[in-house]
Amino acid sequence: MGSENGDRRGPSESSATASERAFEIRPVTLDDLEILIDIYLDTATHHAAIDPEWFHVPARDDVATRLRGRIDGRGPTGEYVAAIIDGQMVGSASVNVEDAPHPGSMMRRVLTAEFGVSVVAGQRGRGIGRALIGHVEDWAAEHGIERMILNVAEGNVDAIRLYHALGYREYDRAMRKSMTRS
C-alpha cells in the first residue's frame, strides 16, 4: 500500500497526514460488487441532493446490473478501479472508450474516453478523487486515448474545482428542457 497521489496532489492537500493520503488503487472484481453498489448509491444520493431534476437514487438491483456490466467490461475499452484505505473501499472510478463518430459525421474522429469517479461522504477532499482520476487518465494514455471527457452537475462546485485544477475545461454546452405531458 502506498500513496497513489504522486505529483497529482495539489497544495490544498499538503496539510493531510500521511495516513489520510496512503491508499491503494486496484482493479475491481465481482467480489467487490456489494460495496461498489453502496458507493454508487452514496454518490447518487449526493447528486440527487445537488440536482433532483436530473439525478435520482436508483433501485439497488438496477445498480447491481449496471455495475456488474462495468466490471465485466474491464479490458481494452474500459477500466474500473477502487481506492482502498485500511482495507475499506472509499471510492471508485471507471473509464470507457467512446464510440468514434460515424465517418459521415462532421465531428472529428478523436479517440475519446468518458470517466466517472465516486468518493464516499466523509472521504471527499482528501486526494482520493484526484488519485482515482490520475489512475484512469494513465490507463487512457496507455490505450491511445486522445481526449478525456466527463459530465458534472453545475451545482457540484467542489468536483468542478478539482476538474479545473486537473486541467479539464468546459466544452460545448448541454441544454435541457423538461417536457410535461398533458
List keywords for this structure.
single chain; 182 residues; alpha+beta; Aminopeptidase; 5 helices; 18% strand; globular
Would you identify the CATH architecture?
A: 3-Layer(aba) Sandwich
In angstroms, what separates the terminal alpha carbons? 57 Å
Helix content: 25-40%
CATH superfamily: Gcn5-related N-acetyltransferase (GNAT)
Q: Number of DSSP strands?
A: 5
**Derived structural class:** alpha+beta
Largest sheet: 5 strands, mixed
User: At the first level of CATH, what is the class?
Assistant: Alpha Beta
Overall 3D shape? globular
Report the total helices.
5
Order of helices and strands: HEHHEEEHEH
The main sheet orders its strands as: 1-2-3-4-5
Q: Specify Rg, calculated over alpha carbons.
A: 17 Å
Uncertain runs are 1-20
Domain module count: 1
Return the average pLDDT rounded to an integer: 87
The CATH topology is given as: Aminopeptidase
Strand portion: 15-25%
What can you see in these coordinates?
- With 182 residues, this protein is α+β, with helices and mostly antiparallel strands.
- It has a single domain (16-165), classed as Aminopeptidase (3-Layer(aba) Sandwich), CATH 3.40.630.
- The protein contains 5 helices and 5 strands.
- A 5-stranded mixed beta sheet has the order 1-2-3-4-5.
- Strand 4 (112-119), helix 4 and strand 5 (147-149) form a beta-alpha-beta unit.
- Helix 2 packs across helix 3 (60-72).
- It is globular and about 50 Å long.
- Mean pLDDT is 87; it is low at 1-20.
